[in-house]
Amino acid sequence: MNWTKEQKRIIDLKNSNILVSAAAGSGKTAVMVERIISLIKSGEDIDRLLVVTFTKAAAAGMKQKIQKSLLNAYQNKDGNIKHLRKQLSLLNRSMITTIDSFCLDVVKKNFHLIDIDPNFRVGDKSELSILLQDSIDEVLEEEYEKINGNENFRKLVEGFTGNRGDDELSEIIQSTYRFILSFPDPFVWLSQSVDKLNIKGEELKNSSWLKEIKSYIMLLLDGAKGYINTALEICNEPKGPRLYLDTLKKDMAIVDNLVNLLNNNMEEFMEAVKGFKAPKAPPFKEKDNPDVDIEKQIEVGGSKNNNSLRAGYKSIIASIKELLPYDLDYDKYSLEINEMYGSIAALKDLIIKTDKIYKEKKHEKGKKSHGKGSKPSHEVYPCEEFQLLFIHPATCYQYVKPEEKCKLSRLICVTSNTANLNI
Prior knowledge:
Blueprint: H1 5-12, E1 18-21, H2 28-41, E2 49-53, H3 56-75, H4 81-90, E3 95-98, H5 99-109, H6 111-114, H7 125-144, H8 151-160, H9 167-180, H10 186-195, H11 201-205, H12 208-235, H13 245-264, H14 266-274, H15 294-301, H16 309-323, H17 330-370, E4 387-392, E5 396-400, E6 410-414, E7 418-422
Parallel strand pairs: 2-3, 2-6
Antiparallel strand pairs: 1-7, 4-5, 6-7
């Protein structure tokens, strides 16, 4: 097969982590298979590779393609014949699988280290949903009985329940609980996030709240600069409207100044945005500019074109102006944020209690299914052979080698749009 320069680089690159991003149908799977075969030919054993996909069908397809490539290499004597024959025999025990199946395999092989019954089973989705909802209902019922003595819970109920019941609050508890489980330490993250609401005026100046706002505004300013840069490029093209060059340079200087102020002085930045006035472009007359392409002139700054590049950059600055508050009273805004603290702290407590009851219900269900001796557990701890760190189940898996004798030495993670090879 004829590989492109980029594909060949992916196949041949060694001793490096690789993130491959490509569109569907661009040949990611074929490249990954070829890379795996290349690693095998260089002496690796197939059972020392972890190849992770999202679906069982994709895993089966990947294994089939690897088998076909190994057979071709063996029949054509392309490589060490003895080693290739060994790989064909090891293929059935190789870890070419989904992330779910791999995690299940980790737990089954190391149940004694995490103190669970070896006969555990994966709960049915509908069954677990019922158990979780029952757990939430129990927690809410218990809290309602003492609502008069819990001001924070009362505020939470008033803010998130309707006249006909607490379905909204129940849904918030459930969705938040499921969301935080995507983090390595979900309840640590939850507590830290809630504590961010308990903030003072001075702390707000350097808080993640303000950093996030600044980051968003900076993104908008980058967009404004993009408009101006594109306009400058068009002006410098043949038949471009060069009469706008000086005006565009002034536009760029204004935006650069806003970027500098945003990084150094928020108060001055707000004043500059409020006082923003774009420089006036010189009037354009077709008869005085016979060498200018009219379409380019309209695209850059046509006075009657609301979609021109200059109009685009000015609309971005106007949107920033709308976004900003009238003044920058940190104490006032911190008090407004603090108003949410009690209610959200109550929500955190509900989620923690829900988690406790939910685990107890799963444990009880397990005992009924398997008899006495089952023990509840929701964490997989590092074992002697490997350690798996979950960042987010849908976006990132990181394989960590704790020591040289690690059984699985490489990770290949294949998704619909990216492939991550940790070598």
